[in-house]
Amino acid sequence: MALNPVFTVCVDRKPGAFGDTMNEIRTCLDHCKIQPTSFKPIAQADSGVGFEICFNSEDEAHLFEDAFRLSTRLPVFC
After folding, report:
1. CATH number for 35
2. Starting from the edge strand earliest in sequence, which strands make up the sheet with 38-44, in order?
3. pLDDT (tens digit, 9 = 90+) per residue, 23-43?
4. pTM reported for the whole predicted model
5. Cβ–Cβ contacts within 10 Å for residue 9, how many?
6. What is the domain count for the chain?
């Protein structure tokens, strides 16, 4: 049985604004009316902490990535 693919978007944390960044991510998800399969903090070797947001749909991942980048100007990667 094949596993369902997961589409991941990662976001860098604003320096000193861990909670604010989480709120911005949640607001963007709500605005786009999409629900991630997972939302967790991750360690970044070069920038401290980031967030990994996973989606079941590639379209939802791209929708979130584009909307979040435009609304916050925070780096998005993965």
Report:
1. 3.30.70.260
2. 38-44, 48-55, 7-12, 76-77
3. 889 999 999 999 999 999 887
4. 0.79
5. 23
6. 1
Amino acid identity, residue 27? Answer: T
Tell me, yes or no, whether 71 lies in a domain: yes
CB 49 within 8 A of CB 14: no
Q: How far apart are CA 64 and CA 78, in angstroms?
A: 13
Amino acid in the structure at residue 26: R
SS (H, E, C) the chain: CCCCCCEEEEEECCCCCHHHHHHHHHHHHHHHCCCCCEEEEEEECCCEEEEEEEECCHHHHHHHHHHHHHHHCCCEEC
* Boundaries of domain holding 28: 7-77
Q: Is residue 55 part of a domain?
A: yes
Asked whether residue 69 is domain-assigned, the answer is yes
